[in-house]
Design brief:
40% of the residues lie in helices and 11% in strands. It is α+β, with helices and mostly antiparallel strands. It has three domains: 3-203; 222-302, no CATH class; 311-344, no CATH class. A hairpin with a 5-residue loop joins β4 and β5. α1 runs antiparallel to α2 and α5 (222-240) packs antiparallel against α6 (247-263). It has helices spanning 3-20, 66-75, 102-113, 197-203, 222-240, 247-263, 269-282, 287-302, 311-325, 335-344, and strands at 23-27, 81-86, 91-96, 121-123, 129-134, 156-159, 165-168, 180-181, 193-194. It has ten helices and nine strands. Residues 27, 35, 37, 39, 43, 45-46, 49 line the site of zinc ion (ZN).
């Protein structure tokens, strides 16, 4: 990539970070429109997924630290990188996809409910748009949902709540197009607008119906619950950052595992469900597919209740403590130490 182009890019990203938040590296696009990942032209998400060798946990490793961002630029200087911008808690994006009639849906929405205010808006490389609005500050949460405005208004996804991201200017699109800010609507030119109530009503997360919650037995300690909640968070992260083609199997395996903990009484089923379904949708699975896979995974796991996976380690630790207290304990030798002792005794080799 040309030096000037690189400088411009770094400047643009600095502004992006200052105004809109954390970014992470996304695979770039070759001159012929292939992905820079190893799948190349066969990639099903060309120029839109995290560079796994820079951010192992995908968008969850996004940063506002320009030193880190510049390091990413340096390490990808030969072929450039695209910019992933996390839709954080402060704002959300309407992702308008014209291939699924999102542009028509947007026009019809505004006819029906009123014009949307001018706000930070980018033109995507495929001639779609990202419209960014301030998130509500009254406790309601916007979540990433595909086709968020229902079947009546197809082609509009919502990205928000920290579990979604958009590809931001100045990234490249597989079509050869470049993501750019609409004239006068860049983050340096205009402020994020508040969304009208009719839009908020349609994009905030509805409280999920709780069902089949088995009360957590009293013998399970607060610490156990904390560790189980940590495992749920870990599982959700694994799902959210699963590579294309492995998402559904990963979702099933992690749901099954978490199901065993629900069955063991360490977690509430409803907490497990919402965390895993959110993560699956953030990874790009449809709502319906996510719900179905999580349901069957959790069901399977619940039928096979398990203790926390490190219980055996804790038991081993307790056994060791007992041996120490009773004076039986001898620190086991490593293989190397045993070999060294053997050699010293004249055992030779
Ligand atoms: Zn790719």
């Amino acid at each position: 990539m040309k030096f000037n182009e690189q400088l411009e890019k770094r400047f643009a990203v600095k502004q992006l970070v200052e105004k809109l938040g954390a970014v992470f590296p996304v695979f770039g696009v070759t001159k012929s429109g292939a992905c820079h990942c190893k799948e190349g032209a066969a990639c099903t998400n060309i120029g839109k997924h995290p560079i796994w060798w820079l951010v192992r946990h995908g968008h969850t490793e996004a940063t506002r630290d320009m030193a880190v961002v510049n390091e990413w630029f340096s390490r990808t200087r030969l072929y450039g990188m695209n910019i992933g911008l996390v839709a954080n808690e402060d704002w959300f994006a309407l992702d308008i996809d014209p291939r699924h009639d999102g542009d028509k849906s947007l026009a019809r929405l505004q006819e029906q409910f009123g014009a949307l205010p001018k706000t930070v808006t980018s033109r995507t490389g495929s001639n779609g748009q990202h419209l960014l609005f301030l998130a509500p500050k009254d406790g309601r949460r916007v979540k990433s949902v595909a086709n968020a405005l229902g079947a009546e208004f197809p082609g509009i996804d919502v990205k928000g709540g920290g579990n979604g991201y958009i590809v931001a200017p100045p990234s490249k699109h597989k079509s050869g197009g470049v993501y750019r800010w609409e004239e006068g609507l860049g983050p340096g030119d205009t402020e994020l607008a508040s969304a009208p109530e009719w839009l908020l009503e349609r994009v905030v997360a509805k409280p999920r119906e709780r069902r089949q919650d088995t009360p957590i037995p009293a013998m399970i300690t607060e610490q156990d619950r904390k560790r189980a909640a940590g495992l749920l968070e870990w599982a959700a992260e694994e799902v959210a950052s699963a590579a294309e083609g492995t998402r559904n199997p990963t979702l099933y395996a992690k749901s099954f595992f978490i199901g065993t903990l629900v069955g063991g009484g360490f977690l509430l089923r409803s907490d497990a469900e919402s965390a895993l379904i959110d993560a699956a949708q953030a990874a790009g699975l449809s709502k319906r597919e996510s719900e179905r896979t999580v349901e069957s995974g959790l069901n399977g796991g619940e039928d096979n209740p398990q203790g926390l996976p490190d219980d055996t380690e804790r038991q081993a630790e307790r056994k060791k403590q007992w041996l120490i207290e009773h004076g039986y304990y001898v620190e086991p030798l490593s293989v190397y130490e045993m070999i060294a002792q053997h050699d010293q005794k004249g055992g030779g080799r």
